[in-house]
Amino acid sequence: MKNSLLILVAIIGITTVSCRKEGCTDEAANNYSPKAKKDDGSCTYDPSTLYTIPSTFSFTDTDGNSTVSFSGQTDRLNQLSEMVTYMKTGTSTALDAQIIKDAFANENNDGNGFFSFTSTKQLKNKCFTADVAVFELFMDELATASMDNATTATNGQAGTLSSGTSTYLVDANGVEKVQVIEKGLMGAVFLNQALNTYFGAGKMDVDNTTAVDAAGGKYYTLMEHHWDEAYGYFTDAIDYPTNGTDRFWGKYCNKQNAAINSNADMMDNLLKGRAALSSDVLTDRDAAIASIRTEWEDISAHQAMTYLDECVGYFGTDNAKFLHVLSEAWAFAWNLRYAPVETRRMDVTEHSALMAMFSTNFWDMTVADINAIKSTIAAKY
User: Radius of gyration of the chain from Cα atoms?
Assistant: First the structure.
């Protein structure tokens, strides 16, 4: 009997090992995800055998209920859009800095009467904390410059400059604060929240098994919702880039697509990562996060370089366009400070040195200065 038991145990052990080899599973892939065995006996897998990646940002549970929600991010995109519309009137109207700040903080859930809609969301409490005061100072400086909108801007004098049908308001240092605020908040709020907060461990290492509130129509898990919120800071269109290329990061991703294939790199990974986490394949989710973080940073760097090239073209021939695109270049270079430490190409010291290459007075910038800044960015990206 003893020998029979030993033989039986041996047979079971061989059978178990054989089954594991045929199924070819791997702990490293997360919870023994099913894998296919390659000819050399090693394990690999085709993601399509584990989860389906949709063509648009549309995901459902097993009952067909949508599990996607990023309405709060859409509210914030809309808030910044309406703020920008108001700030651009500074070329002909004296602006009130407090109105801009109330919109930034969304006082009384309607920007203190500013917004065309109501929402409990705001930009200020999602802004990179150390830079809130910086942006509020920019708002003060924008309002101050608007007091001189009837004056032609010169070195040391705030005012407006026109090129063709476009008119820009710059401060005494030639900085177009509307661009600095808009593009800067794209980094300090949208990029920072998506890449550092929602793709960070605090938001990703959470429940992924239970719907948040199915009875209340919230069919997503907490992890799925956090991914969706990161997506919403990139675009509010589920079919990007068919739509969603009209503003903020969706717009500039599309602008850089020809150079760095950014549309596909961003959208494919946003879709793949969401599909992977919904099937609990967290290694694929994490790989997608790393790719998105890298590509988003690339978009900002390459857009800065694009604007720097345009600066050179306008230098000495069109002050309005020169100062306009230089302000935009500054903002996209500034946004590199928000890239996650896990993937960033430029550390804090290097980034501080980069920003110091911009003169405080944009009127004093030379072609050599601009090319040096571009070279410094290009060396990293």
Answer: 26
Query: What is the arithmetic mean of pLDDT over 33-37?
Result: 39
Give the mean model confidence (pLDDT) for residues 75-95: 98
Provide the residue type at 71 as one letter: S
Tell me, what amino acid is at 136? E
Q: Decide if 292 contacts 320 (C-beta within 8 A).
A: no
Q: What share of the chain is helix, strand, coil (3-state, %, to 5)?
A: 60, 5, 35
- Output the pLDDT for position 49: 76
- Residues 373/308, Cβ–Cβ less than 8 Å: yes
Upstream peptide bond of 241 is cis (omega within 30 degrees of 0)? yes
Q: What is the mean pLDDT of residues 305-333?
A: 98
User: Looking at this protein, which amino acid is placed at residue 123?
Assistant: L
Q: How far apart are CA 315 and CA 176, in angstroms?
A: 16
pTM over 0.85: yes
Q: Are the CB atoms for 73 and 247 separated by under 8 Å?
A: no
Task: Tell me which residue of 198, 169, 199, 23 sits closest to 93, measured CA to CA.
Answer: 169
What DSSP character marks residue 217? T
- Nearby residues of 147 by Cβ (< 8 Å), 6 or more positions away: 94, 158
> What is the per-residue pLDDT for 10?
38
Mean pLDDT, all residues of the chain: 91
pLDDT of residue 48: 64
Residues 6+ apart with CB under 8 A from 283: 28, 29, 30
Burial class (CB in 10 A: 0-12, 13-18, 19+), 270: buried
Angstrom distances, CA of residue 235 to CA of 30, 78, 246, 252, 359: 30, 11, 10, 11, 33
Residue 381 has pLDDT above 90, yes or no: yes
Question: Please, which pLDDT band fits residue 18 given cuts at 50, 70 and 90?
Answer: very low
Q: What sign does the CA torsion over 291, 292, 296, 297 have?
A: negative
Instruction: Please state, as a whole number, how many other Cβ atoms lie within 10 Å of the Cβ of residue 31.
Output: 9
